[in-house]
Amino acid sequence: MTNGSAPGTEIEMLDKWLMNQFVCPVDHSQLNRQENWFICTRDSRHRFPIADEIPVFLRSDIEHNQWWSEISLKSAQRIADGLEILEEPKWDGVSVHPHVQSIIDSTGGHLYRDCKGRLEEYPIPSIRVEATGENQILLDGGCNWGRWTFAAARAGIKSVGVDPSLGAVVAARQIRQQLNLPCTFFVGDCRWLPFAEGTFSNVFSYSVVQHFSKPNARVTIDEFRRLLRMDGECMVQMPNALGIRSLYHLLRRRFHAGKNFDVRYYTPWELRAMFREIFGNSKLTVDGFFGLGIQADDLRFMPLWNRLIIHASEALRAATAILPPLKNVADSLYVNCTRKPDN
Q1: Cα(151)–Cα(204) distance, rounded to whole angstroms?
Q2: How many CB atoms are located within 10 Å of the residue 13 CB?
Q3: What count of other Cβ atoms lies within 10 Å of the Cβ of residue 284?
Q4: Which among 63, 186, 241, 316 is least buried, having the fewest CB atoms inside 10 angstroms?
């Protein structure tokens, strides 16, 4: 992976690099490839299918966070055994991918409800991760169609996206060819990732960990820490229980803790404590007010009322520099951590 190569070449190099990085997500031992399967060298019962060259690292021995993980695993196993063909959506390769058109309100936030099926370009925001050099490689945990993976690639950061949905990863791989961006994707579970310790310089995750039970969230954050190099940076978006829209949703569900794919809400103090216990440090910064997923870069996609919400969110975010306590009522927060030698 060298600077100056054409984007298409970088994509191929990243794909090859990724295939060489995988280890068993159960015990982190080496893997052997046998036809369309990765087989753990320590325990051959740990087998992971490769569906039309898409690695699928979903465990069959644990409970899945989402129902689509189990569907993706079963489909990938059948594809690897030649019993099924990987289905790719019919698409002209020029317009916005149909998967994005159908799911944008889930991946982009509630302001995108009126944009479903109407997008004329991909809503790829700016990522608040600094490009630091050639050796930088970012993992996007829970990427779906690759919105933030592509944001990192556009910022000059080589990036790897992982998601438990085979369909989402198929779409992401098609879109990266359309956009010709240096990134790569595979199917996996953020709780058990198939990499050796210290593989990545950055881990980023947006609107993902919030859907896990709190015990699973802790497992995931600890896995993110394991994958970081020393002085590597982790940035995870999380919902604030004290935000205005968050309180509205909590009130509607009578402050139930949440189940299945419900959002789990945390107070700022809970977030600091959880991440500090794992990383030894944590810092909160504001993502936005009045909801989750609100980005300044989304203005051009929005009708007037939604643009006003975005402007108000950005104004309050800027105001936190003068009034830091305001961050405690933001709906969406980033938790920023650095891996240090003592953790």
Answers
A1: 11
A2: 16
A3: 21
A4: 63
